[in-house]
Write a structure and sequence with these properties.
heterodimer; A: 83 residues; alpha+beta; Ubiquitin-like (UB roll); five-stranded mixed beta sheet; 3 helices; 5 strands; 29% helix; 27% strand; globular; B: 146 residues; Aldehyde Oxidoreductase, domain 3; four-stranded mixed beta sheet; four-stranded antiparallel beta sheet; 4 helices; 36% strand; Beta-grasp_dom_sf (chain A); ThiS/MoaD-like (chain A); Molybdopterin converting factor subunit 1 (chain A); Mopterin_synth/thiamin_S_b (chain A)
């Protein structure tokens, strides 16, 4: 499965890229995060504390247990600070 | 309902007047605007990042939810992104309803949800460095009252 992954705010800065395309067999967001963590230290650092990370699937807020079947765009970001 | 996400500055007074003018039967208009605060006296600028696409969807959903909870004549949400100087207007919401209680409640609801459910992130840049603004626990707990 091909996924577009987007990173925002300090996740974007730690990983050094705003977006990437990955090929993955991950079944859930948590499995995708494990694959990313194993890539290199930048990812391991960015995903070291998942309590500080939020995830959206196809632009809807979701969670780490959510399945990735049918998903095209995954975004990782810190808690939002609008207003 | 009107949702706008833009880098350009906006005229808060003019937006309020235009909003009130197009809701003639409403009787009550409530508006709020957020301004870049320089609590430390050291702030050079604030940078607001957002998630184009999801931002508009999230704001539309929040405005629609307000419209289901209260009998509103109209809703406006306007939020800027990009670099902003201290004192500049960041965002505004306005609600129009028959009576003020609904307009006030809906405006507070919009603000509570906009703070922690719309994908915006603020970074503060000072002469000595930069830091992402952390989400406040009170912002998350503020959602529980709705």
């Amino acid at each position: 499965m091909t996924l577009t992954i987007l990173y925002f705010a300090w996740l974007r800065e730690r990983i050094g890229e705003p977006r990437e395309t990955v090929q993955t067999g991950a079944g859930t967001v948590a499995e995708l995060v494990e694959e990313l963590r194993a890539k290199d230290d930048r990812y391991a650092l960015a995903f070291s504390d998942l309590a500080a990370v939020r995830v959206a699937l196809d632009q809807e807020l979701s969670d780490f247990n959510a399945p990735l079947a049918g998903v095209r765009e995954v975004a990782f970001f810190p808690p939002m600070t609008g207003g | 309902m009107e949702i706008r996400v833009q880098a350009e500055p906006f005229d808060y007074g003019a937006e309020c007047n235009a909003f009130a003018a197009r809701a003639p039967g409403a009787g009550a208009v409530v508006s709020f605007c957020g301004i870049v605060r320089d609590a430390s006296g050291q702030l050079a600028r604030m940078e607001i990042e957002h998630y184009p696409g999801m931002t508009e969807r999230a704001l539309t959903k929040i405005a629609a939810e307000a419209g289901e909870r209260w009998d509103l004549a109209d809703v406006l949400i306007l939020h800027r992104h990009g670099p902003l100087a201290p004192g500049e207007t960041i965002m505004m919401v306005a609600t129009a309803a028959r009576h003020r209680a609904e307009a006030f409640a809906a405006a507070e609801f919009l603000m509570d949800y906009l703070k922690s459910r719309a994908p915006f992130w603020k970074k503060e840049i000072t002469a000595t460095g930069e830091a992402w603004v952390e989400a406040a626990e009170r912002d998350e707990s503020a959602l529980k009252r709705w």
